[in-house]
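I have a small job for you when you get a moment. Can you supply me with one protein entry, sequence and fold together? It will help me judge whether the discrete encoding reads sensibly. Write everything out right here, beneath this request:
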Amino acid sequence: MTSTDTSRLSESFAHRWPTAICATLGSWAYSFTWNTVSVALPHMKGSFSATNDQIAWVMISFIVGSAAMTASVGWLSSRFGRKQLFLFSVGGFTLSLIGCGTATTLEQEVIWRFVQGVTGAPLIALGQIITVNAFPPNRYTMATSFWALGFVTGNFFGPVAGGYLIELYGWPSIYYFNIPICTGVFIAAAILVPKGSETRERLDWFGFATLIIGVSVLQYMLARGERLDWFESNEIIVVCIISVTLLYLFLVHTATAKNTFFDRALFRDFNFTLGQLAIFIVGAAIYMPLLLLPLMLEQIGDYPSLEIGKLLFYRGIGSILGLLVLTQVRDKFDPRPIVVFGLLCNVVPAWEMAHWNTQILPFDVIWTNFLSGIGTSCIWAPLNRIVLSKLKGKHQNQGFAMFYLNFDIGYSVGTSWIIGLHERYTQTNRAYLSENVTLSNELLRFPEVLQKWPINELDGLAALEIEISKQAAVIAYNNCFMISGLLMLILIPVCYLFKK
């Protein structure tokens, strides 16, 4: 090897890691905001005088915007270049942080969160692509694990940092915290990230429009369905017909047209095709506890935000430990059993949370979140390797975009569905429990019960009403956690359908 070759190799190595760190920090900023907002939901709920299903729109609008943009990441990165799209994403995401922090109404917050989802979505797919391409192909697993480690660190650092920030400065500070980091990423990306190639490929506007509008209308239906009593409402019937029609047109168009939004050649890879179903279920099920748990800890356990952040902190510790082990294992083992192990590590905590009562002990939250964190890390990188590692060039842009689009859609559908189910379960359980509050119920005549809830006094009835509402909410949370666990359990046999 000549001195020139050695110099080029050294220069390449010196450029790889700064580029990978810059791209990973962009994904980190997205992950941090995503996770800290879940801790802030109880405070936003009070600030905006919103109910559970209303405040859920802070998460839903973000995911809808993210799904809309993720779908077009493949075309946009090919058309304008990865670097240009990454810079646009970082800059727009930074502006959205200011808008979200200064919002004074729920409507403003929801709009800015939608903008945040649109501008921030490319930070995930492009962050991983840029990191992977900074290293040789034989180091794909290492590069993916490094990116995932940075991404998961946002999950790890977000809840506890968010808890401190909210306690000291209020919930808007969780947005302001990220502004200096995003500014640094923008400057570094402008210097380090390679420009990449640009094409003049036309966008399949019909495919794009039918997919995005169809998914958005579906999301609207899921978010509004519980409040409007589902198909008893003409509005829900109309939007359901619109959504199904548009998504059907998208599938038919993709299968038959010449110029399609997603290249049909992607689906010749069996692992990639099956992976779309797997990542949809993972998106729908695995983050349900992350949305429900802060609300449950605040509503049922009376935990302050700082304590909630500390408890959720252990999920991040588990994720980081899992990823550190995976970086050592790399390609030595079949990734399918690792994914199954990760799913089981999420099924067990979901089963445990499905049996919690009103006395939520800190240790129970710690060990379930820790184990869930390990499981999540064991799912993400190996599943990523199974589904995406063989994609190259144009198919790499489209494949990564579709992978994260299906994840976003799954997460969005799962969020809307589980919030609706929680509201319904709460109302149903409350009705069943209230039926037993009668003078003929002998249990209410025990001295211990009469001392705590004297039903012949107004104060006693009011206290009993509060307890019934609390118990009804706990059972609703239990049911939702059980559903999350069952979905992940169903996915286990699917893992062994993947080819080695």
Observations:
- Confidence is low (pLDDT under 50) at residues 1-11.
- DSSP finds 19 helices and no strands in the chain.
